[in-house]
């Protein structure tokens, strides 16, 4: 199949291009031949994380002194793009939660002791991390959170429940957000904790069955008098909401990145299909409407990619770019949904059949405009900053 | 939502809707999830529907049907769609409102007497087997052949994406009877019965949605069909089938309308009760406007559908209207279902949530029965 690639912006260095080659080879050789099994089993086998760890790919956002490579947000976008190019949305979902959405809290706000204790295993892929913020009554509206942590001597006792937690079933370490100040309203009075699997009171209530992203596991968690020591608090007391918001920037960048990678792959598959599919005395590619449809989709993907990399560069420079990252999240994820829908349409009836890549990619794309800040919530973030 | 019953429907239509909707609430919705898991509809559903007279709307009274008009097709489709089980709707409408009319229209008197009563009563399940691996919306690419041999035709070839291929007892199918003919000429339509030498069906397909209907392939290997089972004239099958397209499109669009109205109803319930940002989602203007937009667009589509059906009842052609409808309404359904998932948040991404199933079930309406792009070509031809 002919590859469909867009030209790289200058921020993608030679080092990142080599990293991409390595990752592309890994996906071709060690993911694609077996990923259908992962979809059926609803999980990515642990040795895959270990292999990614061996290749040095799980530490890109962690400090060098703790075993990471600290490559910054541009590398994160490229990483997300390439994982999603596999065409299995559960792969970037699960891996990015580990590398870019949860463990980054430890690197950003953890104590020296916490970093020493957890980061090496995380970077080697020995321990998998989940982030437990969303609740049944509080999704994009993080301030609606109800889980509570109450002080008891030198421990905290956590009660509540969390929903839609990626890596929640098979993960080892959970970054949990809970209210530590019951008097404080809204966004104030929330703190983060590091909770290890096996701690009494941490219950995986159920594994959720999803529409797509099937090879990533998603859990409902329940905390029943979960006792954790003081030393497990991550970052400052009552400042957890701001930590979550801060980390959201990276989370949104990688969601934009995975949307772009998936979109490019969908276009690649569809170009191959329409150039060979016979209809009306020629191929589908001979029809002007087909060519123009794919040309427009490719244009939108190129624009989404340019916007995302430019936002990642601003973030790397430490500029205030909440608006630009929100725009990238909105546009890249919406484009992804549009691209897979249109590509499925060009596949005709076969696009409705399980086992077809475009069928899976269409299901996988649907969460992109909901998770990590729904489009509507992102639009408000942009609106506030106009 | 816009109710057009007073403006367009007779008492008979309204009664039909009322009975069907009661049946669906009692006998379909409570069991639908089991049928989805099983991947097919139980035979008893057809029998129950047959006993209540729901399957005979395209069949004249003398063969056990009730023969209703195009507005009844709209009512039938809307209520099937409103069940929100797209698989149930597609299998039942294929049987009663798409394949049965072909027999009623083109079969010999003998054949009609022999098969239509069983179809009207739901004792036999009927499928419609046209699509082939290399020929979907472009029917002229069909490769299945039928060769005359004494008082039989020998069928050879393969059909795919056939709803009820596993569960149906009888099918309407199409094959090339004149290999020399070009374009739409040289095709003939046959009534075939499952079983017999040279007939096999594939395994049930695993699909995105429509899971309560089975779907698979049919294979013909020198499968002998009695000459008396040809429907309509030899070589004119393509044109005979085209006579049914308007009705088919109306049925599919009516299913889309029913499904959209259901999606909007449950989403309004959700956004009006879901707490967020200290109030409910409904307190947000963007949510209210989006829902208002969907209801407006669905109402416009519904009006056009009723308008087309009323014209059809008067005996006028609705080729333009039904092509426009089929080009646009399934696309609108995809948009509405997608928007409604979005308003449900991550819950809308979870299996077991009704809107999640609607979103999956919405997908094939713009692929089957003439893909959206093909419908636009149909419209353009008439401009």
Keywords:
heterodimer, A: 386 residues, alpha+beta, Butyryl-Coa Dehydrogenase, subunit A, domain 1, Butyryl-CoA Dehydrogenase, subunit A, domain 3, 3 domains, 4-stranded mixed sheet, 4-stranded antiparallel sheet, 11 helices, 49% helix, globular, B: 383 residues, Butyryl-CoA Dehydrogenase, subunit A, domain 2, 10 strands, 15% strand
CATH fold-type name of the largest domain in chain B: Butyryl-CoA Dehydrogenase, subunit A, domain 3
Q: Could you say what the CATH architecture of the largest domain in chain B is?
A: Up-down Bundle
Number of domains of chain A: 3
List low-confidence stretches of chain A: none
Class computed from helices, strands and strand pairing of chain A: alpha+beta
Q: Work out the radius of gyration of chain B.
A: 21 Å
Number of helices of chain A: 11
Query: What average pLDDT do the residues of chain B reach?
Result: 96
CATH superfamily of the largest domain in chain A: Butyryl-CoA Dehydrogenase, subunit A, domain 3
Tertiary shape of chain A: globular
Shape of chain B: globular
Q: Architecture of the largest domain in chain A, according to CATH?
A: Up-down Bundle
Quaternary class: heterodimer
